[in-house]
Amino acid sequence: PLNLFPKILSDPVYTLHADAQIPLELMGNVILSAASLACQSLIEVIQPHTNTPAPCSLYFFSIAESGAGKSTIKNVVMQPFYDFDEKMRHEYVDKKADYDAKIEVWKIKNKTLIKNLHKAIDKNFSGDDESKRIVEHARAKPVEPEPPQIIYNDTAASDLISG
């Protein structure tokens, strides 16, 4: 019921309806999806049965005849999110390239440290200093960046569950 939407959500629905003549119900669905996505990193919901905080999420399936405007309205409303997603993907590519270079250097240093430990032991030294360096080096191992995934489109339920 659109009359229950706050003005900040109902105004875009009515404006888009006037511009595109797409059913109000379909637009309400997309606007709520966008609002949920926009708030996800800002709001946590504590579920009463688990007392565990989780991001706010709304999952919608839009079922309408072909040509009803599902893709049209989704693309208009979701464009800022698609732009942000694209920006995040470009940043990820850069971060991944940095990580790949850093991990190669880390691996070379790690092999050298292990060789140094072997040499120390072969020479009947305790290897304590070399072991400490290996531990320190392990703590400095680069962390691989996570690929961003903020939007799921045309996704099977099993894919949504696995993330």
Description:
- This is DUF3987 domain-containing protein.
- It holds the Pfam family DUF3987.
- InterPro entries: DUF3987.
- This protein has about 160 residues and is mainly α.
- It has one domain (about 1-160).
- Helix content is about 60%, strand content about 5%.
- The chain is built from 5 helices and 2 strands; from the N terminus they run ααββααα.
- A two-stranded antiparallel sheet has the order 1-2.
- Strand 1 and strand 2 (about 55) form a beta hairpin.
- Helix 1 (about 5-20) packs across helix 2, helix 2 runs parallel beside helix 3 and helix 3 (about 70-120) packs antiparallel against helix 4.
- About 5% of the residues are buried.
- The model has no long low-confidence stretch (mean pLDDT about 90).
Describe the secondary-structure layout:
Elements: H1 7-20, H2 24-39, E1 44-46, E2 53-55, H3 70-122, H4 128-139, H5 157-162
Antiparallel strand pairs: 1-2
Helix pairs in contact: 1-2, 2-3, 3-4
Pfam families: DUF3987
Protein name: DUF3987 domain-containing protein
